[in-house]
Write a structure and sequence with these properties.
single chain; 4-stranded mixed beta sheet; two-stranded antiparallel sheet; 1 helix
C-alpha cells in the first residue's frame, strides 16, 4: 500500500484537489463518492485529515470505514 504524508492527505480535502480522503488508524480512505462528504465536509468533520481522535464523537462506529476503499497508509 502506498504511503502518503500528512501534507499529501491535507491536499485531498475536496477543495485543493478533487479527491476527498480521510485517515483513520493510519489508513487513508477515499470518500470522494460519498454524498455525506460533499465539498470535503461531513457534519463538523473536515476531509484531508486524520479522524482517529474524532471518531469517539461520531454517532457511528469504525465499521463505517468498511464502505470505503483503503488507498494508502498515513506516514
Amino acid at each position: 500500500m502506498k504511503v502518503f504524508s500528512k501534507q499529501q492527505l491535507a491536499l485531498r480535502n475536496g477543495q485543493d484537489k478533487p479527491e476527498i480522503w480521510v485517515a483513520y488508524k493510519g489508513i487513508i480512505y477515499d470518500v470522494s463518492d460519498s454524498r455525506l462528504w460533499r465539498n470535503g465536509k461531513h457534519y463538523e468533520h473536515w476531509a484531508g485529515q486524520d479522524l482517529t481522535e474524532e471518531l469517539s464523537d461520531a454517532p457511528h462506529t469504525e465499521k463505517v470505514f468498511e464502505k470505503f476503499e483503503p488507498i494508502g497508509q498515513l506516514a
